Amino acid sequence: MKLRQQESEQQFEIENKMDEKRALSHDISLYNLVLDNIIPKTYRKKIDSNIKYNNNDDEYSVNHVAYAGNNILSKSDKTSSTMKNFPNRMKSPFITSRKR
After folding, report:
1. How many Å separate Cα 93 from the centre of its chain?
2. pLDDT the model gives residue 36
3. Where is region (Disordered) located (predicted)?
4. Is residue 93 assigned to a domain?
5. What contacts 100, CB < 8 A, 6 or more positions away?
6. For residue 98, is it within any domain?
7. Domain extent for 13
8. Does 90 reside within a domain?
9. Which among 15, 25, 38, 100 counts the fewest CB atoms within 10 Å?
10. Looking at residue 39, what is its pLDDT?
């Protein structure tokens, strides 16, 4: 009786592990699909060469991320580049003031 109960518990655990494996494989496939289709290979090589895994923190870190382009631009540079991409004839849906 105990043997059958142990077998059924083990079978249940095996099925759960297989479900977890399928879900993780699916997630990895989606991540790879995004990486392959959005990030150019030359940039991906640069990113891969600057990533390190920290065993103590159990996470990855990117070297020199503080020097990324988004952090280097000053506030005025960000505003001017944003305004260049926002044509004058286009109205922002967030601006509610009206000229009279």
Report:
1. 28
2. 87
3. 76-100
4. no
5. none
6. no
7. 2-84
8. no
9. 100
10. 86
